[in-house]
Amino acid sequence: MKLHWLELRIPPVGVLLMAGTGIAALSEWGLRVATVGSLRWVFATAWVVAAAAVGLTAVATFRRARTTVNPMDPSAARTVVRDGIYGVTRNPMYVALLLVLVGWAVYLGATWGWAVLPVFVGYLTRFQIIPEERALSSSFGPAYAEYLGTVRRWI
Hints:
This protein is 63% helix and 0% strand. It has helices spanning 12-29, 37-64, 92-108, 116-150.
């Protein structure tokens, strides 16, 4: 089955919202982790704060490099950003979204909700990241190929 029509169609924040809704729905059906509500809130907040730090750092790095942060048009990128957090992961903005979902799952105490996380990663990898990598490889050639070989896609 060809699913190329899904590539670069749903903004990553939309995928985040759908995944978050899935976690919430599954948390209603599954077992919940038995923790004190306030303790769960503290751990969830820590994940979301980490997400904000990663995401804001990534966006600021792109802004300094004067390149686009629009994930729907990777051909508009002006440069290959390799410094800072982009030396650790090629997709820190998507890592930040994943961390938000982890925080949400922790907050809900959702045991079944954790099943959504690999689906989120798989969807973003197949329909967002791989098409981005194709576009960036076309735009930047060997410079981007070297980057692909030295920095991991997620972490």
